[in-house]
Amino acid sequence: MMLKGCNADLLKTLTQPRFSSKTKTPFGGISFVSCSSSKTTTTSTAASDLVITDTNKNSVSCGASGSNPAFSLADRLRLGSLLEDGLSYKENFIVRCYEVGINKTATVETMANLLQEVACNHAQSVGFSTDGFATTPTMRKMNLIWVTSQMHIEIYKYPAWGDVVEIETWCQSEGRIGTRRDWILKDFATGVVIGRATSKWVMMNLETRKLQKVNDDVRDEYLVFCPRTPRLAFPEENRVKRVPKLEDPAVYSKLGMVPRRADLDMNQHVNNVTYIGWVLESIPQEIIDTHELQKITLGYRQECQHDNTVDSLTSPEMTEEDVDKLQQTNGSVTGRSHETDTCQFLHILRLSGEGPELNRGRTEWRKKLAR
């Protein structure tokens, strides 16, 4: 087995972590490409002896020596680590070709998946379980899992294929019923913030599928890894606004969507990122052609199972500026959304046939820049 594609100059520039071999003892015939200098050499080394040293000044090693069997090969090769205070986690991701869309940039679903990935890696790095999205020991004993209750994402600039995105994440308590997780996304090459996100999570019993309050035992298990004072990705004055209910009849709709098997996650329901794609399915094509998504807020109200059928409903959200225009254009503001620099929509996902709400959302779109 050969670990390839480890050009030293490129890897150092893009991702910072550098590989070195603690020993040169053969183990399992694994060849290791050293990236500790601009000259590529191949040496035999044990998988358990691989050590990753993160040269970022704000972070510590994301790997460990082979003497600690608790660290897997994935742990040692992952381009992420806890920061020095141990209260947040940072990881770098290279945007792959299959993660970009029609705009030749990463899709919002890609960005949401990266947020979920770095959150799970953060939980793994502090010893939480991988079999239920970061469940603590007490949660596993009580058959509890975390589920998303709210997600808000803002993307200021979408990365392109081959760009490297640096994502930092941390979690903290959110009252007595849940937790909060925040993220900051940066262009690794420039250090410029390209996005922010925040979310709320609650506990659900895996068997009864009912929500449950976060008890003191669970809170004590994760609070030790949280910032001591509140730290918010968004300034307090930019708090996420409540999403109002979309009133029938909706202007746009996509009906009869059925979850694919690939949409289900290890918690045995449709993954929260799938809802984003469903919401966007009912956005009018003229908006997709002329605008790009800059903000999305989703409130998760009920889980979706594999045998459900879902309707996606969308209508433009009227702002004060829209009301003024409405008085000047004989009520045609709805049909002219694609002509404005920014526009907003309200969304509902519900079970087909006037069924209960699964999700309530808001999106904000900006005019695409000429490329």
Automatic annotation (TrEMBL):
The organism's superkingdom is given as Eukaryota
One Gene Ontology cellular component: chloroplast
Q: Does the keyword Membrane apply?
A: no
Q: Is Chloroplast set as a keyword in this record?
A: yes
Tell me which PROSITE patterns the record gives: PROKAR_LIPOPROTEIN
Subcellular localization, as worded in the UniProt entry? Plastid, Chloroplast
List the SUPFAM superfamilies hit by this protein, alphabetically: Thioesterase/thiol ester dehydrase-isomerase (SSF54637)
Q: Which residues does the UniProt record annotate as the domain Acyl-ACP thioesterase-like C-terminal?
A: 251-367
Q: Which UniProt keywords apply?
A: Chloroplast, Fatty acid biosynthesis, Fatty acid metabolism, Hydrolase, Lipid biosynthesis, Lipid metabolism, Plastid, Transit peptide
Q: What is its EC number?
A: 3.1.2.-
- Positions of the Acyl-ACP thioesterase N-terminal hotdog domain: 86-222
Q: Name one GO molecular function term.
A: fatty acyl-[ACP] hydrolase activity
Functionally, this protein is described as follows: Plays an essential role in chain termination during de novo fatty acid synthesis.
Which PANTHER family does the UniProt record give? Answer: OLEOYL-ACYL CARRIER PROTEIN THIOESTERASE 1, CHLOROPLASTIC
Q: What is stated as this protein's family in its record?
A: Belongs to the acyl-ACP thioesterase family.
The entry's protein name is Acyl-[acyl-carrier-protein] hydrolase
